[in-house]
């Protein structure tokens, strides 16, 4: 199972998709408390999934948003288009 | 500032090469109604939007379009990666190969390079948001024509996802237009 087709990546894609949707919705309706509560709980969920994924495959985000083990893991292949 | 996430927004796993489809699909990379045009249009229009909400929406949709650009690039890359020279010539991509080999370049299906003339930033939020709504509908239609051009479920599936996103973006821009309109009307009266 490669890093882009594992169940953890699928979960990350699902949760981040819901977050994008809620984010765009909240841009237009910032006073919607239900949407905001959903956003905040999924945001928490995303951080948890991201930490689990990164422990296994290395950083998901560059520029300091995730630590790296030695040697510098950001350069590891495959890149997302190479599956 | 932007941060890159080393993942696709939507999974792409294309096993069978198809150069003709790659040639059609590349228009959503660098064509008039493609993802580059969308991303750069919203990105540059956001600076002169009148409200915090519209600035946020254009920033966020522009950013999502960059993720769509990557999905399209991945699809074209995977459709082309194992192609032989003979297949490239037969698909009418000899001219593309001469200029770019199998590199991803911002052209439409006929090889016409991307141009800033595809987009506008008028400085008038009503005009800009109308352009954005039209752009989403044109992108939606392009995705429908592209879906008609292939039988491969591994190609159709991400195209359906991208088509749906254009529908959602259209909806959000429409709401933003109404909000900005109201906001400008209120300013006129008081
Ligand atoms: Fe869009």
Core attributes:
heterodimer; A: 83 residues; mainly alpha; elongated; B: mainly alpha; Ferritin; 8 helices; 66% helix
Summed up, what is this model?
The complex is a heterodimer of chains A (83) and B (190). Chain A is mostly helical and 83 residues long. Helix content of chain A is 57%, strand content 0%.
User: What is the number of strand segments of chain A?
Assistant: 0
Q: Give the overall pLDDT of chain B as a whole number.
A: 97
- How far apart are the termini of chain B? 37 Å
Proportion in β-strands of chain B: under 5%
> What is the molecular shape of chain A?
elongated
Count the DSSP helices of chain A.
Answer: 2
Query: First CA to last CA of chain A: what distance?
Result: 11 Å
Structural commentary:
By secondary structure, chain A is an all-alpha fold. Chain A has one domain. In chain A, helix 1 runs antiparallel to helix 2. The longest helix of chain A is centred in the middle third of the chain and has 25 residues. The model of chain A has no long low-confidence stretch (mean pLDDT 97). By secondary structure, chain B is an all-alpha fold. Chain B has a single domain, classed as Ferritin (Up-down Bundle). In chain B, helix 1 runs antiparallel to helix 4, helix 4 packs antiparallel against helix 8 and helix 7 runs antiparallel to helix 8. The termini of chain B are far apart. In chain B, 39% of the residues are buried. The model of chain B has no long low-confidence stretch (mean pLDDT 97). The chains are: A mainly alpha (83), B mainly alpha (190). The interface between A and B is medium-sized, with 27 and 28 residues. The structure holds fe (ii) ion. The site of fe (ii) ion (FE2) has 7 residues of chain B, from helix 7 and helix 8. Fe (ii) ion (FE2) binds next to helix 7 and helix 8 of chain B.
């Amino acid at each position: 199972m490669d890093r882009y087709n594992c169940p953890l990546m699928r979960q990350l894609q699902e949760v981040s998709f819901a977050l994008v949707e809620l984010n765009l919705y909240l841009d237009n309706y910032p006073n919607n408390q239900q949407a905001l509560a959903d956003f905040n709980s999924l945001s928490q969920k995303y951080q948890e999934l991201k930490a689990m994924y990164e422990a296994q495959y290395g950083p998901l985000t560059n520029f300091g948003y995730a630590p790296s083990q030695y040697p510098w893991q950001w350069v590891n292949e495959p890149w997302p288009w190479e599956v | 500032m932007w941060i890159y996430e080393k993942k696709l927004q939507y999974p792409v796993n294309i096993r069978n090469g198809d150069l003709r489809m790659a040639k059609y699909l590349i228009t959503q990379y660098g064509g008039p109604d493609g993802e580059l045009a969308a991303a750069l249009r919203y990105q540059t229009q956001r600076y002169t939007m009148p409200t915090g909400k519209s600035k946020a929406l254009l920033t966020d949709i522009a950013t999502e379009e960059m993720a769509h650009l990557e999905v399209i690039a991945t699809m074209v890359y995977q459709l082309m990666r194992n192609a032989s020279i003979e297949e490239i010539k037969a698909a009418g991509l000899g001219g593309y190969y001469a200029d770019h080999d199998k590199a991803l370049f911002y052209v439409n299906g006929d090889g016409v390079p991307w141009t800033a003339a595809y987009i506008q930033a008028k400085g008038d939020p009503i005009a800009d948001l109308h352009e954005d709504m039209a752009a989403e509908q044109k992108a939606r239609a392009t995705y429908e024509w592209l879906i008609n051009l292939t039988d491969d479920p591994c190609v159709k599936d991400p195209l359906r996802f991208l088509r749906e996103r254009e529908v959602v973006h259209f909806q959000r821009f429409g709401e933003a237009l109404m909000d900005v309109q109201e906001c400008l009307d209120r300013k006129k009266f008081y």
